[in-house]
Amino acid sequence: MTQVGIVMKESPEDRKLEEVLRSSRLAAGGFMGHDNRSVSEVIDADATELSRLGFTKEQVAERMRQITKVAISGLGTWVQVGDGMEGKVDEAKGWLICPWPHKGKLAKRITVVKVIETGESIRWSDLNTHLISEHGFFEGKGSDFRIEPRKLIRTIF
Ligand SMILES: [Zn+2]
Questions:
Q1: What confidence tens digit (pLDDT) does each residue in 100-129 have?
Q2: What is the number of other CB atoms lying within 10 angstroms of the CB of residue 34?
Q3: Which pLDDT value is given to residue 2?
Q4: DSSP code for 16
Q5: Is the peptide bond before 12 cis (omega within 30 degrees of 0)?
Q6: Given this model, what pLDDT does residue 28 score?
Q7: Which of 6, 62, 107, 152 is most enclosed, with most CB atoms within 10 A?
Q8: Span from the CA of 152 to the centroid of ligand 1 (angstroms)
Q9: What pairs with residue 82 in β-bridges?
Q10: CA–centroid distance, residue 19 to ligand 1 (Å)
C-alpha cells in the first residue's frame, strides 16, 4: 500500500524526469547511477546534508563557478584557485543539456580541483554546477558525475 502513495504523488512530469535521468540519452550511464531512490529523495537527502554542513546550494554553486572561472585562465594547465588549491579545466567539443529540461546549452567543460596538501581531488562539469544551483541535484549514487556534498564542501571551502 505504501507504494500507492509514492505513485500518486508523482506527476507525469516527475515520471518523465525520472526516466530521462535514468536513461543514457543525455549522459553516459545516466544521472542516477545505481541509486534506487527517487530523484526527489536524492535531492532531499542532499539538501539535508548541505544544511547540516551549514551551506546553501547557491553558496556551493557560486564557489564552483568562481573556481571554474579562475581555472579556465590556465588553459588546460594547473593554476592556483584558492589557498592550497589547484584547479584545471578540460574543454571538450559539444554541449551538455539540462535534463529537467532547461533551455540553453552548457559547455562541455570539466573542472578538476586538487588540495595540494592531501592530494584529494574532485571534479565537476558545468552541468553539475547548473544542476546543483538550479535543482539541488548532486546526481544519484554510482553516477559518473555524482558529487558528495560533504567532500565537495571539504575541498572547495
Ligand atoms: Zn536545469
A1: 988 889 989 999 999 999 999 999 999 999
A2: 10
A3: 46
A4: H
A5: no
A6: 86
A7: 152
A8: 20
A9: 85
A10: 16
